Amino acid sequence: MAERRRRWRWSLVVVSKAALLERADEALLPAVYREVGAALGASPTTLGYLTLCRSFVQAVCYPLAMYAAARYDRARVVAVGAILWAAATLLVGVSGSVLQMALARGSNGVGLALAVPAIYSLVADYSSDATRGSAFGWVLMAQTVGYIVGTCIGLLLAPKSFLGVPGWRLAFFVGGAPQRRHRRHGVGVCL
């Protein structure tokens, strides 16, 4: 019983971390719109299309996520989604044109489409009827904190530059940086 409870807590921590990073990634681009627009010569409307591109690809890829979650281990689906969205976030940071950034943001949508439903599914799987509400509460709190963190990172780094690298690019490099791999109690999520 104690081992099951410890495993549940650990799983909740890992899934909450994935949820936090997902929302932080989502908040980065809107936080640096002005700097990205100036660097790429893009209008606010064009920058809005970049966000639309990610959301559209994410929506179209949800059936892929449904298939992957039904056929494969959901913790691994979250891990693959997290790897894809981290790589796409790094690509946004190195994008030199609006088209490149649109392709990177679209790739980001694929990773998010894989990870987000699997995150919620894992929370439901690893929690009992008595703990499910608090588990979802922790995950949603992590998402809100992630949105705040992503916005703060973007806003704080955007006007700066480091070794000639614009701060808005640094924000995406920080957002896409590889995280420590968790492998404990049977849950392995690369975040």
Automatic annotation (TrEMBL):
Chief location category: membrane
Domain Major facilitator superfamily (MFS) profile: 11-191
Gene Ontology CC terms, in alphabetical order: membrane
InterPro entries named among the record's database cross-references: MFS, MFS_dom, MFS_spinster-like, MFS_trans_sf
Keyword Nucleotide-binding found: no
Source domain of life: Eukaryota
Location(s) in or outside the cell: Membrane
GO molecular function terms noted in the UniProt entry: transmembrane transporter activity
Keywords: Membrane, Transmembrane, Transmembrane helix, Transport
Pfam (any one): MFS_1
Membrane topology field: Multi-pass membrane protein
Positions of transmembrane segments: 77-96, 102-123, 135-158
Keyword S-adenosyl-L-methionine belongs to the record: no
Family membership noted in the UniProt record: Belongs to the major facilitator superfamily. Spinster (TC 2.A.1.49) family.
Record-linked PANTHER family: MAJOR FACILITATOR SUPERFAMILY PROTEIN, SPINSTER
Protein name: Major facilitator superfamily (MFS) profile domain-containing protein
